[in-house]
Structures are given as C-alpha cells and as structure tokens.
Amino acid sequence: MNDTPTQGHGELQGLFEGTFLDFLGFRLTAWQDGFVRLEMPVRPEHRNTVGYLHGGVIASLLDVAGALSGNYGTSEDSVSVTINMNTSYMSPMKSATVVAEGELVRRTRSLFFAQAKILDPENNRLVATSMATYKPQARERLSEADA
Q: Where in the chain are the domains?
C-alpha cells in the first residue's frame, strides 16, 4: 500500500496492514500506559493543494494518538471507537516529518478521555490539539456486528 508501513510495538505488528492507518505510514516511537508518540514522514499525498499537511491527516493522527494512549496492552483484543473529538488547528505545516503525541486523561468503566497534539519538529511548533472520548470494544464483538 505504501513504502513506509506502520510499525508498532509488539502487539500492534500487522494490525494496521492494508488499512487507512497503514496508508498514513506512521510508526510508534514511544508507547506506555497512558502515553503514545507517533512519527510520520509526510508524503505528497498527505498534503493539500497548497502544500500544507492536510487537515484530515492531522485529525486522523490526533485520533490514533488519543485512541492508543488509552489502549495500551489491549490492542489485539479490543479497539477504541471514537465517540467524540474536538480539534483545534493552530498552525499550518509544510515540514517533512510530523509528530503526534497522545495522553490518557481519565478512564471510566466504559469510556476513556484523551488529549493529543500534533507537533512540527522542524520548526518547534504546535500545529493542532484535540480532546476526545473513546469507547473500547472487543474486536470479536465488532466483527459479529458486521455479519
């Protein structure tokens, strides 16, 4: 699908293969309970018509970072479905690499809340932030719903 497949830590290996997340081409550079850091080389197809990183790519990276921040150690068995995400775009970005960081804010019995940010490492600039609500779902339960 692309030249830079998504790479994960242990249990994430191969889970994104052939998906939109694989197309994005990010890699996990840090992942622990409550925190994740992603890095992604920006390719031409990630950019909008004026050369900036596309807002949809930014939102996708924020969403993935938020979801993974609360999904540490359970990714093979469950997936975090986004319930709501509020995004603030602060600065355009033309750099060759983008960094996304996600942090778990709070967990309840059925939901978790996470914040995420997009960083431009070449210009030391905050590009966007988000606050989101996620609902963990068993992968097998999601598969049965499609049948």
A: 10-146
